[in-house]
Amino acid sequence: MKINTVKEVPAFGHIRYLREKLVEWFRTHGRDYPWRQTSDPFRVLIAEIMLRRTKADQVKAVYDRLFAEYPDVETMAKAGNKELEQILYPLGLKWRTPAFGLVAREVKEKYQCKIPEVREELITLPGVGEYVAGAVLSIAYGKKEWIVDSNIVRLFRRYLGIKTSKEGRRDKHVVEIAKAYVSGKDPRKANLALLDFAALICLPRDPKCTDCPVSATCHYHVLGKKEKK
Ligand code: SF4
After folding, report:
1. If you ran DSSP here, which 8-state letter would residue 4 be given?
2. What is the DSSP string of 56-105?
């Protein structure tokens, strides 16, 4: 991934405070999905590939069916595109169907059916980018590995009052903030909290600042800034 120019990273204490408050919020407001009830890295990896540009409810509808048919790397590696297509068609984005068989075959051949535990290896797999790699490492393996998507960029930009480029998820200072955010205990919960909070509370058009546990220390809220969406 191309990384953009470095800009200032806010004080670590501010980022740590955000993590503590979001994890607390997550205990009662976090979303529950089948791929969050497992620590099987294969299932988490496949679910994350399904979730790219697809709503979680659509993924929920095919998740059980897919794993009932192909419960592990070995069986999915043998799956043909036609069979996969029959299960995955509700997700749309037909072009990505081959990625599921390809990723399973590569994990089988190169890694003896074990999902890699390092980012550099994960991002070489078909359909896996920095976000999916970070999600697998933190959610399935419990590692202190960062994730950034467009919702997370928006939250960091507002809460910390930073500037970001049009492709903020590629900005080096945003990646540094995401790394600092996940550097404490329980990285799995910290990243899930970040995802859910950015998607449910710090909404693109009308952020729910009155329900927000960090509003008193939020740059956007305190200064009443009207940022461009
Ligand atoms: Fe987002 Fe509003 Fe909370 Fe700031 S106060 S983090 S803008 S929801």
Report:
1. B
2. HHHHHHHHHHHHHH--SHHHHHT--HHHHHHHHGGG--GGGHHHHHHHHH
When pLDDT is cut at 50, 70 and 90, the band that residue 6 belongs to is very low
Q: Which of 181, 201, 221, 228 to mutate to test the pocket of ligand 1 (most atoms within 8 A of CB)?
A: 221
- Write out the DSSP string of 29-62: H----GGGS---HHHHHHHHHHHTTS-HHHHHHH
Place of tokens 């997370």: 152
What's the whole-model pTM score? Answer: 0.91
Q: Which residues pair with 4 in a beta bridge?
A: 171
Q: What is the Cα 36 distance to its own chain's centre?
A: 12
Question: From ligand 1's centre to the CA of 2, what distance in Å?
Answer: 29
- pLDDT per residue over 32-59, tens digit each? 999 999 999 999 999 999 998 888 889 9
> Is the CB of residue 146 below 6 angstroms from any atom belonging to ligand 1?
no
pLDDT digit string, tens, across residues 197-222: 999 999 999 999 999 999 999 999 99
Q: Is 153 left (phi over 0), alpha (psi -120 to 50) or beta?
A: alpha
CA angle centred on 178, ends 174 and 182, rounded to 5°: 170
Q: Burial-class residue 199 by CB neighbours within 10 Å (0-12, 13-18, 19+).
A: middle
What is the average per-residue pLDDT within 78-86?
A: 94
